[in-house]
Amino acid sequence: MLVRVEAAGVGFWDAMSREGRFGEMDFPYVPGFETAGVVESTGAKVTGLAVGDEVYAFDFPGGGYAEYRAISAATAVRKPASLSFAEAAAIPVAGITAHQGILDVLGLREDETVLVTAAAGGVGTFAVQIASAVAGARVVGTATPANHDYLAELGAAAAVDYRDDAWPRAVREAAGGAVDAVLDCAGGEVNPQILSRAFETVRDGGRVAYLPSLADEPLPENEPAPPRGISARFFGAEPDAERLARLAELFDAGTLTVHLEEVIALEEAARAQERVEAGHTRGKLVLGVGPRA
Asked: Cross-referenced Gene3D superfamilies, in alphabetical order (predicted)?
């Protein structure tokens, strides 16, 4: 179907795609996995969505940084009715990643404790909320001190400054012992030092999930091996309309909220990606494309 784009989400995955980290690209290439807009037209076999519907979607390999986007109807659902287009565009990749990582990959359970690294970022903002409000877990997040109150507002029980070399010990102290699980949104396979330090926070037999990273540190010949029976799993989110629909319900119910650091004009997309690559954004950056963003 064809979607008239009102807003497009911006994430580190857009910069990674631009750099060719997801494989060779066909040119011309338009970035942007996350879209929120209005259905302009549909193919003959499209069901469940019609012209005029307000939708949001995560579709690959790009196309969101544009006024119109041809998109697979299988990747789109009606956007949360309570959110603006800009807020909805902030959700698809980051929300799916956090939801999948916390509930499926880690299988976080009520009364467990989880560490979320880069907790104030795009994925981390949703992960903290999903872990606390949906899974019923206790959350410790890493962030700069300027974001500690922000994490508390999201539902984190404690926050730790990752710039302190002793942060793994601080995490264990804040958690009252070793954590049950870690969602590493900061280091992953490209910056394994953070992942290695995260293992220090986890109980014997605990679980770790980690994401792709924009860090420039080269991938070692062997990724850090988890000690003490800890399981570690790398994962990346994929388009999932069913999960987007479940997220829409959570946002409309007020269980989850969106934080926009800035809505940037489409013409300044390069600046938006520079901001993402520099790190330290709070929540998400979004491109305002249409007049209703």
From this structure: Medium-chain alcohol dehydrogenases, catalytic domain, NAD(P)-binding Rossmann-like Domain
Per CATH, is 2-91+258-288 categorized as 3.30.1360.70? no
Contact 68, 48 (CB under 8 A): no
**118: Cβ contacts below 8 Å, ≥ 6 apart:** 124, 142, 143, 185, 186
Which architecture, in CATH terms, is 101-234?
3-Layer(aba) Sandwich (3.40)
How large is the average pLDDT for residues 90-106? 97
Mean residue pLDDT of the chain comes to 92
Of the candidates 136, 118, 156, which has an alpha carbon nearest to the alpha carbon of residue 283? 118
Does this model's pTM top 0.70? My answer is yes
CA distance 270 to 258: 23
Residue 69 has a pLDDT of 97
DSSP 146-175: GGHHHHHHHT-SEEE-TTSTTHHHHHHHHH
| Rounded mean pLDDT, 260-267 | 97
Token pair in block for residue 214: 């924009």
State both tokens at 155: 């539902």
